[in-house]
Amino acid sequence: MAPVADSTDTWLVLLRDVSRAIRVRGHSQLKAGLVLDVNTGLVRGLAVAPTDAEALTEAFSTALSKPAGTLPPGRPDRVLCGPGLAERVIETLELLTSTPSLAPITEVQPAAEAEDIFDSFIG
User: Fold this and answer.
1) What is the pTM of this model?
2) Which of the residue ranges 2-6, 55-59, 118-122 would you say has the lowest mean pLDDT?
């Protein structure tokens, strides 16, 4: 994902059913949540869990507290997410930060580069 020349801390959130690609004994369904830093293309958080809520919670927990490389921990200024995810993203951020989400949440069609990054982690 090409870096974006922008001073705002923008995250892109993706969620996908990965049950066909990843198998874990005792789980017929697995979901993967990914939080990308739009400005750098680095992964802020990635998680695989049995439910959408758990995958998003784990991915956001890492993104908020222990992101990759030299990215600072903290809340985003803006969040982009795939179609139909805004409500779950808001609920998850509010649960983890114990405050109403102040970041604007915008549903977008993720760029092919973002999907390729997700595919490379799942593959």
Assistant:
1) 0.82
2) 2-6
